[in-house]
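Query form — protein ATPase subunit IV

QUESTION: What is the three-dimensional structure of this chain?
INPUT:
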Amino acid sequence: IQALIFATLAAAYIGESMEGHH
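ANSWER: The structure tokens for ATPase subunit IV are given below.
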């Protein structure tokens, strides 16, 4: 289950980073 949470957080972080939320 921990992997799922990590993947979700990573996806959200990458999404914001790529979106340009610097």
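ADDITIONAL NOTE: The CA atoms of residues 6 and 12 lie 10 Å apart.
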